[in-house]
Design brief:
This protein has a single domain (3-181), classed as Rossmann fold (3-Layer(aba) Sandwich). Helices cover 40% and strands 22% of the residues. It is built from seven helices and seven strands.
């Protein structure tokens, strides 16, 4: 089975089981972004069965890279570990099964790309915690900013108060993202 076929199977699984995840169009956009910017150290906060993590890893597979990904649900974390094995990307992914709000303050690394797609009402808290861990001139992506705008009320005030410039990009009808270039 080809990589694309495996990804399609993974996508079908999360759709059949109502597991939220990024769309295929969003995955393609983020893979292109990773390719163009040549990211090396990615932090991902929440992604269910790690469809997005695998997409990131497949794009980065050609060079040295590292992904740290944090997932709260033990069930989806275990599914993800199996997916990492199936796609042969396990060695360079540091998977953490815990609450990101507790983990992020203890991370020692700096990141050139951060993807936030978990617990929408805490997005502002995630952004605050990772701000110093993101290198200058690199990117932070926050998923679903239009669909869950009300849940992210604190985020909008935080961005304005701290004069953080951002763009909202309509990747597809249901999955707009917010991009910050720090």
């Amino acid at each position: 089975m080809s990589i694309e076929e495996k990804l399609n199977e993974l996508k079908k699984y999360w759709e059949a089981n109502n597991i939220p995840n990024i769309s295929k169009i969003n995955a393609i956009f983020l893979r292109d972004l990773i390719k163009i910017w040549k990211f090396k150290n990615i932090l991902e906060i929440g992604t269910a069965n790690w469809y997005s993590t695998i997409n990131f890893a497949l794009e980065l597979k050609k060079t040295w890279w590292r992904i740290t990904t944090i997932e709260f649900s033990s069930r989806t974390y275990n599914i993800a570990l199996n997916n990492f094995q199936d796609f042969n990307v396990f060695k360079t992914i540091k998977a953490i099964n815990w609450n990101a709000l507790d983990i992020i303050p203890n991370l020692k690394e700096n990141y050139d790309f951060v993807f936030i797609d978990w617990m929408k009402k805490r997005t502002k808290d995630f952004l605050e915690l990772i701000w110093k861990k993101v290198k200058k001139d690199w990117i932070i992506i926050i998923d679903d900013v239009i669909k869950f705008k009300e849940k992210m009320a604190w985020l909008w005030g935080y961005l304005e108060k701290n004069n953080i410039k951002y763009n909202i990009i309509p990747i597809d009808l249901d999955d707009w993202i917010l991009m910050i270039i720090k």
